[in-house]
Amino acid sequence: MASQTMLKFTKIERDMPEKRAADERNRDFREIYADYARQKAEEQSARCSQCGVPYCQSHCPLHNNIPDWLRLTAEGRLQEAYEISQATNTFPEICGRICPQDRLCEGNCVIEQSGHGTVTIGSVEKYITDTAFEEGWVKPIAPHMERTESVGIIGAGPGGLAAADMLRRAGVQVTVYDRYDRGGGLMTYGIPGFKLEKDVVMQRMTQLEDGGVTFRLNCNVGEDISFEEIRETHDAVLIATGVYKSRELAAPGRNAGGIVRAIDYLTASNRKSFGDAVEAFDSGELDASGKRVVVIGGGDTAMDCVRTAIRQEAASVKCLYRRDRANMPGSQREVANAEEEGVEFLWLSAPKGFTGDLRVTDAGNPADVAGPVSGVMVEKMRLGAPDATGRQVPEVIEGSDYVEEADLVVMALGFEPEDIPTLWGTEELQVTRWGTIKADFQTHETNLPGVYAAGDIVRGASLVVWAIRDGREAAEAMLAQFAAQTSVAAE
Ligand code: FAD
Ligand code: SF4
Ligand code: SF4
After folding, report:
1. Distance from C-alpha of 138 to C-alpha of 142, rounded to nearest angstrom
2. Are 309 and 440 members of one domain?
3. pLDDT of 338-380, one tens digit each?
4. Does 143 fall in a domain?
5. Are 476 and 385 within one domain?
6. Which residues of 449-464 are buried (b: 16+ CB within 10 A; e: fewer)?
7. pLDDT score of 332
8. In testing the pocket of ligand 2, which one of 64, 66, 120, 123 has its CB within 8 Å of the most ligand atoms?
9. What ipTM was assigned to the predicted interfaces of this complex?
């Protein structure tokens, strides 16, 4: 009986897979958590109380059938657990690694609220699919029949790939266009290997290629091929291009050398992990080795930058954030990992400008300087009254300025969408006032018939799991549309 196997949360404590020691893990880009041994995965799954109304499931963006795959894992029926897990999630091994579980499934596990630690849902999800790959249970994509319809997908991130997977399984002819030389989007070039090792993403790319998805890489839509050409080639198009425009800081000295954008810094580091030659890294520009590094920002991208700099053997790594620890947007788990690895946090500190060999222009404008940076002018803050959103507004403490010395400054202030209608010459494509593409929240179709949009380009900077959900839903809507057209043609 399930109840004999399950409900062990009062007897068995929550136990995450072992975390590698900070002074060992901070020297490489390998993931920091070890794998569960089978017995441990079974024990941890058995802690689940099999709630009749599982809040874990309702707070998972994919509504994964968590209680069922936990029970099957606890009973040693791993292959069945895998079948259920993959039915709702295209990339369970990736979500198990990088979802912010503390805000989603695990954060809503009821046994946490009864004073026992939450079930380790993410780690079990990762374990199930990693085992499925090892055991050969992950079947190739082999459609029962080929369909004549074709779909062009712009963007090989999780949103585009989730749609490609579902469409191809239904026999649709799928071509994915991406401006990068590898697929995976931010899973490949944004998120560092210590959170998500690159072969985990690449094995999915191989599965899709082997299953008949065509990839046109190094193909920048709007430059190498027009959007209109893609529309004319395919029966439907999915835009899943993500958000890549870095938020900027207009401050004196911003143009000094050694002040770089987080996306450039992380992409270079990830490329090095693949063994690529990266000129800007090899020249030292994007390499933190031996440098005093200051990262500006308090989100998860900033956490990835500081932990990357530690692994590149920076002389020191500091994170500058204008609010306090309790009010930062980044995950507390990542802050703790960063601190363990040697990062120093400068809370309630905001950048005011940059110092260095500032070659002031004729116009006398120090914002136009090009010499190397030597420091960040910092002003200390305190938290004032809450604004309309209820969040306390940081206020400057007058006379508190000082210079934080730095040889490399990484700006991690968030991302915005590029201006797609202008870049692609598709002024008729409707966007919101933030520049994200307007799409129906269920079908994901835009105002252009047959053109769908999914992931960050619709939501703004978000999460892999939401991009997967959008991609799957868009694919379902396209399949429904194709089916409707087929039945009309048959009448
Ligand atoms: P993307 O993954 O951005 O993929 C878009 C693809 O479109 C890219 O490959 C790009 O090259 C391509 N493209 C763009 N424009 C064009 C064009 N004109 N022509 C052709 N191709 C184009 N989320 C989590 O859930 N957990 C995390 O731990 C996490 N960490 C993150 C760390 C960093 C540093 C960053 C930046 C993001 C992180 N995220 C994380 C967020 C997550 O990566 C994104 O929400 C997710 O990747 C969005 O998926 P997407 O498919 O919409 O877009
Ligand atoms: Fe939790 Fe993410 Fe897995 Fe859903 S997909 S169960 S939120 S780890
Ligand atoms: Fe199990 Fe927790 Fe989900 Fe309840 S909320 S079904 S205890 S994982």
Report:
1. 12
2. no
3. 999 999 999 999 999 999 876 655 555 554 556 799 999 999 9
4. no
5. no
6. eebbbbbbbbbebbbb
7. 85
8. 64
9. 0.99
